[in-house]
Design a protein that fits this description.
about 240 residues, alpha+beta, NADH Oxidase, 4-stranded antiparallel sheet, 9 helices, globular, binds flavin mononucleotide
Length: about 240
């Protein structure tokens, strides 16, 4: 079934001039603005800028209610047509984490052997990946599904729809990392599952339509990291 909500006309200028809409605008603006007594813009900017990718964790488990709050905030990310194509598999259990780490390590080993990488380097690489996955207090495997997205008869628009699902899912991942940071947790997005989606889906017994995109390792941080960013004028143009 083709469901193209994007084709609906989006010229709201007449509607915006309507007296009822004009009367409601001040309260809309109030709703949209951050409530300063809760969170100043400076505090938000500080939160956004102070998040770092954390790869070493304390063994302390993440309380269930903390994890739920983090996932709740993740799901408030924007998404194309508000279809919310993200799916999360939460692994707070060491046995499942180990199972995933072992399966991904086996696939990584096979891939690197095909590439002709020396065995010693392969072992170093796989051990590092396994260590990160099993030392996290929890893993969130970030997946997407195309199940609720629009379908098109042509490959180009279908590909664009797919990219929108990927973009939406990445936004949920960023929300999740920031919410975790706000809770005092550390986290890192790891790309491994993107390279072995079938292995991840099979190992974790996930629904067939779930496409693993990455895994976020989470836990109370056992390291401090610093990073730099390029100056704004190397990344922005104004027209
Ligand atoms: C799509 C994506 C894939 C990433 N994959 C990995 C990864 O596989 N392993 C890893 O240690 N970090 C990974 N990272 C984290 C980046 O290395 C990190 O975000 C970057 O170095 C900037 O550091 P910061 O997050 O501390 O600011 C990934 C980040 C993104 C957004």
């Amino acid at each position: 079934m083709v469901n193209n909500s994007r084709r609906i006309a989006t010229d709201f200028s007449g509607l915006m001039r309507h007296p009822a809409v004009q009367a409601a605008l001040p309260s809309c603006r109030q709703q949209i603005a951050m409530q300063p007594e809760l969170l100043s813009p400076q505090a938000v900017h500080r939160l956004l800028k102070s998040r770092r990718s954390i790869r070493r964790f304390e063994p302390t488990p993440i309380p269930d209610d903390t994890m739920t709050r983090v996932l709740e905030s993740a799901k408030w990310a924007p998404s194309a047509h508000n279809r919310q194509p993200w799916r999360f598999a939460v692994l707070a259990n060491r046995a499942w984490q180990q199972r995933l780490a072992d399966a991904m390590a086996a696939q990584l080993t096979a891939d690197l052997q095909v590439d002709g990488v020396p065995q010693e380097a392969i072992e170093k690489d796989t051990q590092r990946s396994q260590q990160r996955l099993t030392s996290a207090a929890a893993l969130v495997v970030v997946c997407l599904t195309m199940g609720d997205m629009d379908t098109y008869p042509d490959a180009i628009r279908q590909q664009n729809e797919r990219i929108m699902a990927i973009q939406s899912t990445a936004m949920a991942g960023q929300n999740l990392l920031l919410a975790a940071h706000a809770e005092g947790l550390g986290g890192v997005w790891m790309c491994g599952p993107l390279f072995c989606p079938d292995v991840v889906r099979t190992t974790l017994e996930l629904p067939a339509a779930w496409e693993p995109q990455g895994v976020i390792a989470l836990g109370f941080p056992a390291e401090m990291r610093t990073k730099t960013r390029e100056p704004l004028n190397t990344r922005v143009v104004y027209r």
